Amino acid sequence: MTKDDYRELKRQTKKERIFVSGTTWSIQTSTNVPAAHRDKFAIIQSLGRILYHNYGGAYIPNNDTPDKPWELQNKLRASKLRSFAARCRKENRNEAGWRYEIESRLLERFDIEVAW
Questions:
Q1: If we measure between CA atoms, which residue out of 56, 53, 92 comes closest to residue 71?
Q2: Contact by Cβ (8 Å): 33, 27
Q3: Are 98 and 86 in contact (CB under 8 A)?
Q4: DSSP string for 87-114
Q5: Percent of the chain having pLDDT more than 90?
Q6: Chain segment 30-43, per-residue pLDDT in tens
Q7: What's the whole-model pTM score?
Q8: DSSP labels, the chain
Q9: What is the tens place of the pLDDT at every residue in 53-95?
């Protein structure tokens, strides 16, 4: 990302009234994360660092990770959601339009019964 791209993003966020506060919890400074939550926080941070192109189809299990055949399906669903979101943005939809278009698709996974 160039400096001009960054400046344009900053202008756009200001125009849209998007404000980002500083990070309260940080794995780099784990002293401000309560001890009872450090392990969970580290797991969440590692999940946040998973890159889209490394997930699913390019995933190769190793001795530490079990085989996860559903990952490719998750990646395909994410791609579809991204295309719906891109269409909403292109059409300048308001929040209600976004929710109508995406919310049911996003939450449908929670309606599926999971068998163990």
A1: 56
A2: yes
A3: no
A4: HHHHTT--HHHHIIIIIHHHHHHHHSPP
A5: 0
A6: 667 788 888 888 78
A7: 0.49
A8: --HHHHHHHHHHHHHTT---PPPSS-STTGGGS-GGGHHHHHHHHHHHT--GGGSGGG----TTS---TTHHHHHHHHHHHHHHHHHHHHTT--HHHHIIIIIHHHHHHHHSPPP-
A9: 777 655 455 444 456 667 777 788 888 888 988 888 889 888 8
Distance between CA atoms of 9 and 15, rounded to whole angstroms?
Answer: 10
Which amino acid, residue 46?
Answer: S
**Residue 76 C-alpha from the chain's centroid:** 14
Q: Single out the residue of 34, 74, 66, 23 nearest to residue 50, CA to CA.
A: 74
